[in-house]
Amino acid sequence: MKAEIKWVDGAMFLGESGSGHTVVMDGPEDHGGRNMGVRPMEMLLLGLGGCTSFDVMSILTKQRQQVTDCVASIEAERADSVPSVFTRIHVHFKVSGKHLKAGSVERAVTLSAEKYCSASIMLEQAGVAITHSHEVIEA
User: Where are the bilayer-spanning segments (predicted)?
Assistant: First the structure.
């Protein structure tokens, strides 16, 4: 896996993934940015959310669950001192569908957290406390 980050101007950078996709990262105006893109630490949270959501949907699809929507809401806390690393992250899944089995959703979230989500497992190994919760909504 490869990526390239190119400085544009001020605190703005373009990140290009090895698969050829580009994302804008920028800082706040009080740090030389123009607030035109996500912050790098926000990108980490988005990556974590995408990784675990991909797992949960893949598992539920294999279980033949009729999912109509899946939203992962993520809240994080950072250290007050430099480096301002993540200290705690909570991921809450809202999974909607027809006749969803609550046990299947719980199992999918657990399997992602404990076995499949490389991003969350890597962050946990670095000392970040990551918790998960979920709710099932009948569509």
Answer: none
